[in-house]
Design brief:
The protein has 383 residues and is mainly alpha-helical. It has 17 helices and three strands. A three-stranded mixed sheet has the order 2-1-3. A hairpin with a 5-residue loop joins strand 1 and strand 2. The structure holds zinc ion (3 copies). The site of one zinc ion has 5 residues, from loops.
Length: 383
């Protein structure tokens, strides 16, 4: 478990940033091949290691014993850690630069790392020796290790921290802190993951301590996050709207199929006058048939029937007109008024024309029909 309620919980991006002594970026050598790293994989839990535990133990013993150590690392609370310039310099090009500059001030050189718990520095330096860490240490100090590995250019450890966060150490409690660190430490993948997590869990994240501190220390970032939250919200609404629209177009498409089917083959109680009907006939395969059957029956007997007076009849008029616009050949079509509507279309206003054209296009697109009149087959083929 990542500990947030312990002393480590005091770690906050806002105030902490100023305390850590950042090396001057101008002194940072290029990362190139300078970090060969040791051959051992950082994680004891996965991956392949070609270094035996004896070797690893040897490096850790060297660190723990401080045998012939020639560097003092000053940490918070005036606690010193002893290390070897050769190893620090080989593992971190930034350390190498600092050590080079501090040459000549006595035999033992010193480096200061403040603003992070001493234990985190200890874990960091140990990693420089053996490329290993304890799982619990990673859980406790992943944020500090991420920053230290970035500042001192130890890409192997930085990758490890990013990976461990991705694999589960990232939580709604720490995501705001880590998001800011990811931006600061140039970890684009991690910042993207944090950003997504914040948007997906906005309600929970916005009540965390991390969010409150960010609000105070980085109001611009808070504003940006809120804006992207609104964008995401709109995108979500747009997605829902599109899904609903598609449903409607699909229903219309099905109604069109069923209309042709009823007028051509007849179904159950309704159909062309030259067909026989059985009321106990098995249900047909057209999903919209049943509903349309009721509508057609109503339309046939409704006293009002005038367009605009009865909502059911109005619906029927619309379906008939829509059919006519989709119908390939009114001469052989058996849908009532198909030809009449085709003639009416030529007299229609530009505005209505555009409205209908858009609707037809959308229905065809819903079924991925390449714009060809699609009722020709429905009319020609027997059911
Ligand atoms: Zn039917
Ligand atoms: Zn009616
Ligand atoms: Zn027709």
């Amino acid at each position: 478990m990542y500990v947030t309620k312990s002393r480590k919980a005091n770690f906050r991006f806002g105030g902490w940033q100023q305390h850590l002594q950042w090396p001057d970026p101008k002194n940072r050598p290029s990362t190139g091949n300078s970090q060969k790293g040791l051959a051992m994989n950082g994680s004891p839990l996965r991956g392949y290691s070609c270094v035996s535990t004896v070797t690893k133990d040897l490096w850790e013993r060297l660190f723990d014993s401080g045998y012939k150590a020639d560097v003092t690392i000053n940490t918070d609370n005036n606690n010193d850690i002893y290390a070897h310039a050769n190893i620090l310099g080989m593992a971190s090009p930034v350390m190498r630069g600092i050590l080079r500059q501090s040459k000549g001030r006595g035999r033992r050189r010193s480096i200061s790392i403040h603003g992070v718990p001493q234990d985190a520095v200890q874990v960091f330096i140990r990693f420089l020796y053996s490329s290993c860490y304890e799982k619990t240490d990673m859980e406790d100090y992943v944020l500090h290790l991420l920053v230290l590995s970035h500042v001192f250019v130890v890409p192997q450890l930085k990758r490890e921290c990013e990976q461990q966060l991705e694999l589960g150490l990232l939580t709604t409690d720490n995501v705001v802190d880590i998001f800011q660190l990811a931006l600061l430490c140039d970890a684009p993948r991690l910042s993207l993951l944090c950003h997504r997590m914040i948007l997906r869990n906005f309600v929970n994240v916005s009540i965390t301590e991390g969010w409150k501190v960010m609000k105070q220390s980085h109001p611009v970032l808070e504003k940006e996050l809120l804006e992207s939250m609104i964008d995401e919200d709109n995108r979500q609404k747009e997605r829902i709207r599109k899904v609903n629209d598609r449903k409607i177009y699909l229903q219309l498409y099905e109604a069109m199929e069923a209309l042709v089917h009823i007028c051509r083959d007849g179904c159950r109680t309704i159909g062309p006058h030259d067909k026989d009907f059985k009321e106990n006939q098995a249900p047909c395969n057209y999903t919209a048939c049943k509903g349309l059957e009721l509508l057609v029956r109503h339309f046939a007997s409704c006293k009002l029937r005038v367009p605009g007076k009865c909502i059911h009849c109005k619906r029927m008029w619309q379906l008939l007109e829509l059919h006519s616009r989709l119908c390939a050949d009114s001469d052989v079509c058996r849908v009532p008024l198909c030809r009449n509507f085709k003639e009416k279309i030529t007299r229609q206003s530009k505005k209505d024309e555009i409205k209908w054209k858009i609707l037809v296009k959308k229905i065809l697109r819903t079924k991925s029909i390449g714009g060809a009149p699609f009722f020709s087959w429905a009319i020609a083929s027997p059911s």
